[in-house]
Design brief:
Elements (H helix, E strand, L loop, with lengths): L3 E5 L3 H11 L5 E5 L2 H10 L4 E5 L7 H10 L8 E5 L4 H9 L4 E4 L4 H62 L1 H4 L2 H31 L8 E3 L1 H11 L1 H6 L3 E5 L5 E3 L1 H18 L5 E8 L3 E7 L7 H5 L22 H11 L3 E8 L2 E9 L7
Parallel strand pairs: 1-2, 1-3, 3-4, 4-5, 7-9
Antiparallel strand pairs: 6-8, 9-10, 10-12, 11-12
């Protein structure tokens, strides 16, 4: 489809001249001899480019451009001013009201053609980019909807697998057979891993769709940390690790479920990447401006390359779990999003071959007096 161009000038000979210069090209040319006529045509037709005379009686080019740029439906149309005025102030004024370019009279045919072709190409590129962005946004929404549906549909049968595996683990007949114990334990671990992955995928979809809302209420981070350490105690005991907790109760207003998710990820990672017999320290403290939680492990640390992608989605870092645990590469990215929603920050405070410390800092403004 050929590009459509509106030529606006109150002098008919100027319109004829511009039209003759552009005639050899496959453009759809329209003409207007006043600002009001131009606005009327633009309201009816979607033009790809407007060649607009600055000096016209009544409604001049500057006012026409101003109105077009104030209208959401027409602000994207590039405007090239046709002007006999070459002084700097007039040119600047044209750009300030939204002009993309200008051509001075008398016209240089080669210059006029070059500027027209340039701005038509730029508009076509912008239109294509906008179309692709819309397609991408629609594809992301579809992916997230399908992901959310699929994940929810998987959760119910997975809960059943978890429940029956737990019952089998306690069954006296199963406990007498080591092979059965190992198989049931494998099923239970695999189900838990799948549950973690599904939860992280659901969180990822919620974040991308902007639907992760916080449900704030008074909570004690120290109590959340106690619960997290208890939840991870079996894995720590399996690896003969000691997890210590120090700090005092501090009431803050936060989404306790999401904040517990943050702590669980950091503590479980510390257990996962620390060697057998390691000591893991969890410390809750406060400063004049913030509440801070630190988790220190005895893992292998992070390389400079790791640091650059630490909080990215689906990133594989150089460190590997020491007990055969599975890493999805999603957890820390979600953790950062949750902390950001609390207007806090998370960082790798220090790292070496002897271990690393992650810091979660929440602003003191979220605390209150009991």
């Amino acid at each position: 489809m050929s590009a459509s161009i509106l030529i606006v000038d109150d002098v008919p000979t100027n319109i004829q001249l511009v039209a003759s210069i552009l005639a050899p090209f496959d453009y759809e040319l329209s003409f207007a001899n006043s600002g009001h006529d131009a606005l009327a045509q633009i309201a009816e037709t979607s033009f790809d480019l407007i060649l607009l005379d600055v000096m016209m009686p009544g409604l001049d080019g500057l006012e026409v451009a101003t109105r077009l740029k104030e209208n959401e439906l027409t602000r994207h149309i590039p405007i090239v001013f046709l002007t006999a005025k070459s002084d700097e102030d007039s040119i600047v004024e044209g750009f300030m009201v939204g002009a993309a370019d200008y051509v001075t009279k008398p016209f240089n045919p080669a210059e006029l053609v070059a500027r027209v072709q340039t701005h038509l190409a730029l508009k076509q590129a912008r239109d294509q980019l906008h179309h692709r962005n819309l397609e991408l946004a629609e594809a992301i929404q579809m992916k997230n909807r399908l992901l959310s549906i699929a994940s929810h549909d998987l959760k119910n049968p997975l809960s059943a697998v978890n429940g029956f595996a737990s019952m089998l683990e306690r069954n006296p007949a199963v406990q007498k057979e080591k092979d059965l114990v190992d198989m049931v334990s494998f099923i239970s671990r695999a189900a838990r891993r799948m549950n973690t992955l599904i939860s992280e995928l659901l969180d990822t979809a919620a974040l991308e769709m902007g639907k992760m809302d916080l449900k704030r209420s008074p909570c004690d981070p120290l109590q959340l940390l106690r619960e997290v350490i208890l939840d991870n105690s079996n894995q720590a005991e399996t690896k003969e690790q000691a997890v210590s907790l120090s700090g005092s109760p501090i009431l803050i207003e936060a989404d306790s479920r999401r904040l517990k998710q943050v702590f669980d990820n950091l503590v479980s990672n510390a257990i996962k990447y620390s060697p057998k017999g390691a000591n893991i320290a969890v410390v809750l403290s406060e400063t004049d401006s913030s509440v801070e939680a630190r988790v220190t492990d005895q893992g292998p640390g992070f390389s400079d390359e790791d640091k650059d992608k630490l909080f990215g989605y689906f990133q594989r870092l150089s460190a590997r779990p020491t007990g055969g645990e599975v890493s999805t590469g999603v957890g820390l990215a979600i953790v950062k999003q949750i902390v950001d929603l609390h207007h806090g920050e998370i960082m790798l405070e220090k790292t070496s071959e002897q271990g690393s410390t992650f810091l979660v800092r929440l602003p003191k403004s979220q605390t209150f007096q009991a």
